[in-house]
Amino acid sequence: MSDLDLILQSLEALAEREGDPAPVIYARLFADHPDLEPLFLMDTDGGVRGSMLQQSFDCLIDMAEGGTLAPVILGAERVNHGTYGVPDNLFDAFFTTIRDCVRDAMGADWTAETDVAWSRLLARTEALADA
Questions:
Q1: From CA 60, how far away is CA 63, in angstroms rounded?
Q2: Fold of domain 3-130
Q3: Residue 89: helix, strand or coil by DSSP?
Q4: Long-range contacts for 89-97 (Cβ within 8 Å, ≥24 apart)?
Q5: Banded pLDDT at 94 (limits 50, 70, 90)
Q6: What pLDDT digit, counting tens, does each position of 111-126 carry?
Q7: Domain limits of the chain?
């Protein structure tokens, strides 16, 4: 199975098992990186978080497909998030958090093959910081 198939399959499992994954993902992000939570103080209805998560899913899928849109979006968003004081390592931490939540949702269905596919995908998103 290709990396793309594994990534799509795992994201589908997250949606099936969590419904709206935003609460789980942001709870984990804020538990792991409490300094990020104050950045969402004005997001009282979760709209910014939801939009950011959807854009992240779109970018992860585009990257897995070998698309060219995600690198442009992620490059611009790194700069944008930098203006809020978010360093590259914390920008990348969001994608790691997504992966960790997908892994937790999949439980025993998470395979070594899926883990490798996600590791390669995250390495590609992190490499964009150096581009």
A1: 5
A2: Globin-like (1.10.490)
A3: helix
A4: 90/33, 90/35, 90/36, 91/129, 92/122, 92/125, 92/126, 92/129, 93/29, 93/32, 93/33, 94/29, 94/52, 94/56, 95/56, 95/60, 95/122, 95/125, 95/126, 96/122, 97/25, 97/28, 97/29, 97/32
A5: very high
A6: 999 999 999 999 999 9
A7: 3-130
